[in-house]
Fold this protein.
Amino acid sequence: MIRFLPLLPLALALSGCSLFGGSDEACGTGDSVASGSLSATVSGDSFRAVCLQGSLESGTLAIGGNLGAEGTPVQEQINLTVQGAQVGQTYTFGLSNPGLIALYSAVDVSDPLDASGVYTANPVIGTGSVTVDAVSASGASGTFEFTGHNDEGQTLAVTNGRFDLEF
């Protein structure tokens, strides 16, 4: 768990809603709140974010979206970071792309320090790719897929990922 625990605050910071989730109105109004869509298939289940965030700072694209947590204690989200994001490029996870990170988390708000629901793909572990179709200071679009690993050695497949954000 210690290996992924430092990623939990990053994931929560990049998510559009608070840890306790909520509807679109609960997503906030900060500079990094985005509009658009972020969707994927997570272990065969549909994921369509309710709250979105995104930014492009010094060439690093950071996007995130979560499902909110209304009616459930579990906060689910996907976060992507692409350092040096350029239009038309496909980035694969591995040592050749040290600034590429994907994260899926399903954290129970009653036990937020339990990192067993945090799956990551990064330069050291995990597989997959992110393709950037468009990127600018005002938005980004593209596709992604990854197989993330948690601290217990389990894997989780995120497929058919698509983002189209204005920020």
